[in-house]
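Sequence and fold
=================
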Amino acid sequence: MAYIELYDKSMLDVISLGKSINDFNMDLGDYVKVDIYLGTRKIVSLQSNKLMMVNAQGDLYFGDYHYHTENPKMGFCIGASHTGDMNDNERLQLYPLDLNGVAVENLSNGDEYKKQVNIFKDDSGQIYIKPKQLIESAYKSSPPRGRFRIETSFHRNIQSEIGLFLNNMKYNLIENGNFFAGLEATQTGDLDKSSGKNNIVMIPNPGFSKFVLNQNGLPGNTYSMKVTGIKPNTNYVFSCWVAWDSNYGGGTHLGTFTNVSSQATNQNRTVGLNSLPNTSPKGSYYDDIGNRVVDTRTINGLYWNKLYYYLSTNELADNGYIIINLGEASGNFYPSTSPLSNRYFTDLRLEQVSSFDGSVIQNYLNKLHMDSLLVPLLKKDTAVSTNRDERVEGEEVIVDTNTEIYKKEVFDNFVDEIEKGLEIDIQSVMAQSFPELYGQASETNETMGPDDDDDSSGGFGDDIGIYEYPKGGKIQTKRIKK
């Protein structure tokens, strides 16, 4: 998402979408659809989640397209999907544009490409689009003269919600760490191997499903699960949400991790695991003990902690699996003494990392923290609002390309009204925007106005937005007709 500064000359070319970055998140599938009309005829529909494409002749293409992941040499082609009877002449290959507007034939994961609609934000978090830019994009910078109408609507790609969740979990070695449908964490029958109270129950929780593992924490209470895919000489991070109720009187430990090696015995179950600093049965921390907790939530009076634990195997880890014993007491972490106590676990993860140092582990922990944004999307019953497929009715922008520039009196009628709600010299701002109409700005306000190279005579002009920034932080628009 691009960034715009208040009082910049570009503010005269943008319109507010009435949303902030707090309720519009492109990473979670939110996108803006823009319909452009010339008179009553729809010219094109653009979307902020689609790439700007050209065909082999260099003509812009705004229709559906698909990408051949199984054969990257085929790249992008027209149509929402590939049909089996298409030959090379029929499939019509497409090429995305890079940020400089150049068609790209050989794609790279590190490159960025133009979108059909650019979303901008200001320093208060409000989001905007540029109607003039969109119209020019639709006509390759040479729009005809006429009266354009732009309609905007907000949508959410539901597929992206599930896809994003599955993508986040694709490296998790624990198959069902959120106990979806009340099922166990792995397919090996963990409840049968466990001891004490171990129930999968339905309660409000910060994980991705309605279910959690419930224990009482009494002596011997352990939930043991066998997790496969463990390799020698490899680093892992185990993480989970965990909570203890007010009756719980034991240690706040996660459990133990054992049996990665065929040489492990009952007396020494940790053969094949390296001893690591900043790690105890309570969890790990990356530089300071205060960083032990990734995130917290209080739900129905229950205080949840997102904790993590470093694991590192050596050359003796030849079993190909690890036994995770959730809740098992060890060392100075004792079991609870109350039979009425409750301990809860959910969102169990075991993922490989390259290092426990520096930006590698910090980025990983930041990802764990940001994943909490996905939870309301999958747990629709607990979400405050999940339907983002809303249309903004009546919010239209008129861009008339018949008139080149405004007369001075158009603005004079509004100067006094706008100044009342502002703590800036509007004359200074307008002078820098339109020096030929208002003269030069005063030196004291020079930094607050737009640049001197104003492009207000670019042909898009009979309906313009005067943008004010009143107390309260939201930019508002007044549209003026000549």
The first strand starts at residue 2 and ends at 3. Residues 75 and 346 are 40 Å apart (CA to CA).
